[in-house]
């Protein structure tokens, strides 16, 4: 039985071969030699690529280390989300989405409804999606939710959905497979944007779907082929290279995020601090039961008094990039309401902790908060 760190370092590597690299370089090919009538594992670049294969084996080993699983990688997280939804739903079906999920879900809802699919929504907290589950074909969960960081009980919801004949997909982006394993908790699909913590350097767009059901994997893979939402070989290779440090990054980021959340709780001008690792967080008890110890994610959310106050704070930070993403080795923060679409106050901050020394990062945040206060 190997630990997560060991598994992440070895995930998806081929058997050692003399004088060959441990992780082969990216294979750049639009087509492959096909002598005679024999059809091998690789025929055309939209169908498969050896670089994808190794990455998919690696991700599968992390999402489902104790049972066989199938992973399909995509050009982005949204491509992966779309593949599950549009490969499984037909006109007349109903799907349950979180009302507080990723900000592009409303656009997805519009598209689903245009195809005659009924979309129901409910908040993540308190397992509220249970109330609108009857008759649905698919239940989509996002836990912890982005950006509000609420947590739902995957096992409870999955059991209820399966009793009603529904499939269950979990967006595992924020938790990562080292923080939470949805398939072990009963989900049919674990879906994530590998753009975030999985690759972790802010330089790759990637998505993936993992399932233990071969038929479901085939349907998702066919969707990828049909719409051409394939990852590039270079992006796939960079993602695989990054798996080796995932355990280190998740550990450092989670510890730093909890330390930052605790520091923010001491500031009078800061309201609504959320992080699943905080003992005072409304989701803490469920997060402890469902997520891996000490791996509650890199994201902290909180609210400053107003838009101007939040913008002064962001401008005063020196160790943090004002950017719209999370999970990078470099800390990022943004005033989330800048985009619209999220039901958050104007002063709401989504803060993603990188791998900087927590003491340095917290000191920078305190300085920025002090500067923002002085400008009030």
From TrEMBL:
<protein>
    <submittedName>
        <fullName>Cystathionine gamma-lyase</fullName>
        <ecNumber>4.4.1.1</ecNumber>
    </submittedName>
</protein>
<dbReference type="InterPro" id="IPR015421">
    <property type="entry name" value="PyrdxlP-dep_Trfase_major"/>
</dbReference>
<dbReference type="Pfam" id="PF01053">
    <property type="entry name" value="Cys_Met_Meta_PP"/>
</dbReference>
<dbReference type="InterPro" id="IPR015422">
    <property type="entry name" value="PyrdxlP-dep_Trfase_small"/>
</dbReference>
<dbReference type="GO" id="GO:0019343">
    <property type="term" value="P:cysteine biosynthetic process via cystathionine"/>
</dbReference>
<dbReference type="GO" id="GO:0030170">
    <property type="term" value="F:pyridoxal phosphate binding"/>
</dbReference>
<dbReference type="InterPro" id="IPR000277">
    <property type="entry name" value="Cys/Met-Metab_PyrdxlP-dep_enz"/>
</dbReference>
<dbReference type="GO" id="GO:0005737">
    <property type="term" value="C:cytoplasm"/>
</dbReference>
<dbReference type="InterPro" id="IPR015424">
    <property type="entry name" value="PyrdxlP-dep_Trfase"/>
</dbReference>
<dbReference type="GO" id="GO:0004123">
    <property type="term" value="F:cystathionine gamma-lyase activity"/>
</dbReference>
<feature type="region of interest" description="Disordered">
    <location>
        <begin position="1"/>
        <end position="20"/>
    </location>
</feature>
<keyword id="KW-0663">Pyridoxal phosphate</keyword>
<dbReference type="GO" id="GO:0019346">
    <property type="term" value="P:transsulfuration"/>
</dbReference>
<feature type="modified residue" description="N6-(pyridoxal phosphate)lysine">
    <location>
        <position position="196"/>
    </location>
</feature>
<keyword id="KW-0456">Lyase</keyword>
<comment type="similarity">
    <text>Belongs to the trans-sulfuration enzymes family.</text>
</comment>
């Amino acid at each position: 039985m190997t630990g997560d760190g060991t598994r992440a370092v070895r995930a998806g590597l081929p058997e050692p071969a003399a004088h060959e690299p441990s992780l082969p370089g990216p294979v750049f090919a639009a087509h492959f030699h096909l002598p005679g009538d024999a059809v091998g594992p690789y025929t055309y670049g939209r169908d498969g690529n050896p670089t994808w294969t190794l990455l998919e084996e690696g991700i599968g080993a992390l999402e489902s280390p104790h049972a066989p699983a199938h992973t399909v990688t995509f050009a982005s997280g949204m491509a992966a989300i779309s593949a599950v939804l549009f490969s499984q739903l037909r006109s007349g079906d109903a799907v349950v989405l979180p009302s507080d999920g990723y900000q592009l879900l409303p656009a997805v809802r519009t598209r689903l409804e245009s195809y005659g699919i009924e979309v129901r929504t409910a908040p993540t907290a308190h397992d509220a999606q249970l109330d609108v589950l009857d008759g649905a074909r698919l239940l989509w969960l996002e836990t912890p939710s982005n950006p509000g960081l609420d947590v739902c009980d995957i096992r409870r919801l999955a059991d209820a959905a399966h009793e009603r004949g529904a499939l269950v997909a979990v967006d595992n982006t924020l938790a990562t497979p080292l923080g939470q394993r949805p398939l072990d908790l009963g989900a049919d699909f674990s879906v994530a944007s590998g753009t975030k913590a999985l690759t972790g350097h802010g330089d790759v767009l990637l998505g993936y779907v993992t399932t233990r059901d071969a038929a479901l994997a085939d349907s998702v893979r066919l969707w990828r082929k049909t719409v051409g939402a394939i990852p590039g070989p270079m992006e796939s290779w960079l993602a695989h290279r990054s798996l080796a440090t995932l355990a280190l990054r998740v550990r450092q980021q989670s510890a730093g995020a909890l330390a930052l959340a605790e520091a923010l709780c001491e500031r009078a001008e800061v309201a609504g601090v959320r992080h699943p690792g905080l003992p005072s967080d409304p989701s803490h008890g469920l997060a402890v039961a469902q997520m891996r110890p000490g791996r509650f994610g890199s994201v902290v959310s909180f609210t400053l008094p107003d838009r101007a106050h939040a913008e002064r704070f962001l401008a005063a930070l020196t160790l943090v990039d004002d950017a719209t993403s999370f999970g990078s080795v470099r800390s990022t923060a943004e005033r989330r309401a800048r985009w619209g679409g999220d039901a958050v106050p104007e002063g709401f901050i989504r803060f993603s902790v990188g791998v900087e020394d927590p003491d340095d990062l917290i000191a920078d945040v305190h300085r920025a908060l002090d500067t923002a206060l002085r400008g009030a």
